[in-house]
Amino acid sequence: MARSGKTTIVDTLYRLTKEQNKDVIPVGTLTKIERASGATLYFDRGVFQSKKQRQIFYHIWTVAGQSSFSALREKIFLGTDGVIFVVDSQTKFFEDNIESLKELKNIARGKLIKDIPLLIMLNKQDLADIIGEAEFLQVLKDEQLWFELGNELHSYNPIIYETCALYNFKKNIYRSFTECGRQLINRIIPLAPEND
Prior knowledge:
Layout: H1 6-19, E1 24-34, E2 40-50, E3 57-63, H2 70-77, E4 83-88, H3 94-108, E5 118-123, H4 133-142, E6 159-162, H5 173-188
Parallel strand pairs: 4-5, 5-6
Antiparallel strand pairs: 1-2, 2-3
């Protein structure tokens, strides 16, 4: 949804991977198309490269969350391999988050979880009057994006991270990104054949 902290998350991820010894490094600079207020006008984009497997690049996109940009979100979603859904954890935006999740679910056309990994970032956990993991887990269950033990998709359930995107706090920003990357690699890159 709009103003949930997506741009701040990408900024923090870029700075963390540039300034600290991490397993990925940024390639080039971040591309941002934003309003004078700093809000995303169209999208943000960053490219990151694995240091361990140099042939692996991660293209990170954020898209403006305002309802007028729904067609752009659908266009950018084409070819998506993984989703980190950013939630504004303030309780006053609870319903707005649900509507954004429903839109994502609709755009994904049944591919979330099984084909496209989904991670949840409950952002802005540094603020007062926020929702927690239990509340959003119920939303995932209601939207059939969470599967109980015994279901074949149970092992693909989204991981929910409580986050703070601000660089000085940087709670679970890099961890969320690396977990999404790990899930992508496990699903997309076939295992190399063993040498006889």
